[in-house]
TrEMBL record:
Protein name: Aminomethyl transferase family protein
Cross-referenced InterPro entries: GcvT/YgfZ/DmdA, GcvT/YgfZ_C, GcvT_C, GCVT_N, TrmE/GcvT-like, YgfZ/GCV_T_CS
Residue ranges constituting the Aminomethyltransferase C-terminal domain according to the UniProt record: 277-350
Gene3D superfamilies: Probable tRNA modification gtpase trme, domain 1 (3.30.1360.120)
Transit peptide found in the keyword field: yes
Gene Ontology molecular functions: transferase activity
One Pfam family it belongs to: GCV_T
Keywords on record: Transferase, Transit peptide
Keyword Transit peptide applies: yes
Domain GCVT N-terminal: 6-257
Amino acid sequence: MEPLSLHFLHEEAGARFIDVRGREVVAGYGNGEDGYRAAREAVALHDASYREILRITGEDRASFLHGMVTQEVNNLPVGAATYAALVNVKGAMVADARILKREADLLMDVEPGHGAKVREFLEKYLISEDAELHEATGEYAILRLLGPRTASVLGEGFSPLAHHATRPLTLAGQDVILVGNTSVEPHGVDVWVPRAGVEAVWRALSQAGAEPGLKPLGFEALELLRVEAGVPRYGQDMVDTTIPMEANLTGAISYNKGCYIGQEVIARATFRGHMNRKLTGLLLGEADAAPGMELRRGEKKVGWLTSVVRSPSQGQRVALGYVHRDSLEPGTELTLAGGPDTVKVAPLPFKG
């Protein structure tokens, strides 16, 4: 397990650690309620330095990556970020990634444990282009701020960032890049930090957040927020058989960019106008459920669960899961396989 750069700081704060695909992650601090509440009502700081980063250099870096992902890269402005899927020739996902375009390179931010897979996939198609792939997880770290008082931590006069908008900033003597990340929480900002300066920046953010009520946020509380927001995570809700539209990733797809690996399948599915199944929300009440559990309507299997949490905002257990299009109407009652418990289909994001 690859340890966190800030392991000792988290340990001093009473952190519990878990392994997520070979990388150390802070599961939580105490009971986790303080961080969750801070992300909802004040500001929370999450160490996302377990995420893996690839760097692409060379004259053809943009055109090469443009032909490998579902999103626009060629016309992405320098300094901007975007979210994309990588799919194989059958249109099934290899991974998802956030792409940051800089003057001299491209950075790709992927889920822990998937960096090598993404690099292998890209290198398979890298033949004559002037582009080179570099492992960059050791060069950069990501710290995530969430909550309505995020702006007050980043300095007087800081204005909120739109999703994937970027802004350079100097924190604790480090040149960092702020990237709006509002998918889970509407005020979210990711701070991209040179790995060597991550401790100084963590301490600076923690100090600046003392008055606004900043609390550290563990992975388990972040998962609560993610599921409540209806955001799928690759490796949990999306796997190598998932078609992006099944997971509601239409925002990750450009329909005007031209050819890329898997484009014909994505275009055909889009033209058809529907998918046989879609990711949706499910209200579980107090049902004892776990990811992978089948969903049935009568005797027919109509889906399965992917993420299950106890939601403070809903006052019950809730889940993300895939459900057949004939059973997607909100309020539809389904049963959990192997028991009498019923669950209800709910729109995403969960309200409340």
